Amino acid sequence: MLKGEDSKLAFFMMIRNLVHLLLVALEMIFFGRAILSWFRETENETVMKIYEVLYNLSEPLILPMRMLLDKFAWSKESPIDFAFSFTFMIIVILTMFF
After folding, report:
1. Is 24 exposed, middle or buried (0-12, 13-18, 19+ CB in 10 A)?
2. Is the pLDDT of residue 3 over 60?
3. pLDDT at residue 74, rounded to an integer
């Protein structure tokens, strides 16, 4: 059994690994959403259901960035979803640190 500092280090590493796993899962969710957004107009129900699940998992994370960027006219007028892009970049950067 680990004692003192060793148990604290083991606990810290377990939390770090859990956070890293969560961030990688979020990256995959965002990546899947981006890819499936190209096929939103498809009649394939399976693709649409998978897209809906990915959308529902990722949109709560994107919403604060969307609300922030909506204050700028350039964000509203652009065909690029900057809120999605910036949130995805933040997740990728956080993953590099964990």
Report:
1. middle
2. yes
3. 84
Higher pLDDT among residues 6 and 67, named by residue: 67
- For every residue of 57-70, DSSP letters joined together read HHHHHHHHHHHHHT
SS3 string, 19-59, reads HHHHHHHHHHHHHHHHHHHHHCCCCCHHHHHHHHHHHHHHH
**Residue 24 corresponds to which tokens in the numbers above?**
């990688």
- Beta carbons of 48 and 42 less than 8 angstroms apart: yes
Confidence band of 22 (pLDDT split at 50, 70, 90):
very high
